Amino acid sequence: MAVSIFSRHYxxxxxxxxxxxxxxxxxxxxxxxxxxxxxxxxxLLHTVVGGETLDQLAARYYGREDIWWRIADANxxxxxxxxxxxxxxxxxxxxxxxxxxxx
Length: 103
Prior knowledge:
The protein has 103 residues and is of the alpha+beta class. It has three helices and four strands, in the order βββααβα. It folds into two domains: 1-33, no CATH class; 44-97, Roll (Membrane-bound Lytic Murein Transglycosylase D, Chain A), CATH 3.10.350. β1 and β2 form a beta hairpin. The mean pLDDT is 77.
């Protein structure tokens, strides 16, 4: 299945592995390697309040809740649901959150 150019997985390498059941068929697996997080001087520093979630923050800052993963990628090493009130996270600027990956 082709990956949309708007997908965060677009352009990623695939790995072919032997099918464990038959030992001969090849199975393509999408592999996502996270690059080092980019830092932006114009990123916002948001202090989490109450039960805020990354999709709520994406809707607030970008007007689109479906790109919550851009905030997650800017704050690696944390499960997206583990943010607690009072903790601070980086919110990348809108120009970064809505860019389309290049091939």
